[in-house]
Every structure is written in C-alpha cells, then in structure tokens.
Amino acid sequence: MTALLDVEGELIPRGAARFPDAVVRDELDNNLANELPTIQIEQVPGGGDDGLRLSHPLIDVNVYAATRAEAIALANEVHAWVTGELRGSATSTAVIGLVRALALPAPRPYENPGLRRVGATYQFFLHPVS
Q: Is the Cα dihedral 34, 117, 80, 120 positive or negative?
C-alpha cells in the first residue's frame, strides 16, 4: 500500500522559504486583502497512486495580488519553481520526481474586485524517502 504524504505540508514551508515576500498557505482567511501577495497551495481531489510507493496528487496553486499584472508575474515565478526547482528535489521525508502542469497559470475569477487571482493545477509524482 502506498504511504501517502502530506503534500501541502511538504510544499508550503518550501514555498514560504522560496517566496519570503508572500504569504504561503493552504486556506484563505478574511484578512486576505491585507496579506498580499498570497500563494495558496492545496491538494484537490484526483490523482492516484501505484499501490506501492509512488503517489501522483493534484495540486492547485492560486496567487492573489492587488493587480492582475502582479498576480500573473508571481504565478509565472511559482510555475518556474514548481516545474523547475521542485522537480527532482527531496526533503527528509519526500522525493519529488516528475511535476507537470495540467492547467497553466491563467486568471481565475474571484468574487472580491479588490484582488486578482491567477491559478494553475499541477500533478506531482512523489514518494516517501526510503
């Protein structure tokens, strides 16, 4: 049976270290407008595993910023981090192999007109460290 990892727990601290000028979190709160830019990393339903070690969860990454241009720019930086730096990396608990974008960064609707949201969906292939 595949040992499932806390993917958000793996990615959020790494994202916070990589993007120190942004708030990196899984859940949004009511103070979002005062915490821009924010990078939201959350696992969404989908993906799967090989029944042995390898899991391939789906991860949504949403960037919230004051302007569309700022949100797009940061989302593109996050995309480069996810598909470049994270691919082939490891922590003391997880090895990230292939990472692929299933939906490239693009503006997504958001009900607050004072914010802009740009998001992407990624599939990670990872396993626990042996």
A: positive
CB-CB contact of 38 with 63 (8 Å) = yes
- DSSP secondary structure of 3-23: ----HHHHHHHHHHHH-TTSE
- What gap in Å lies between CA 78 and CA 98, rounded to an integer? 16
CA of residue 116 relative to chain centroid, distance: 17
pLDDT of 2 reads 63
Contact criterion met (CB below 8 Å) for 41 and 59: yes
Query: Is the bond into 37 cis (omega within 30 degrees of 0)?
Result: yes
The kind and range of the H/E element at 94 are strand 94-108
- What pTM value is reported for the model? 0.94
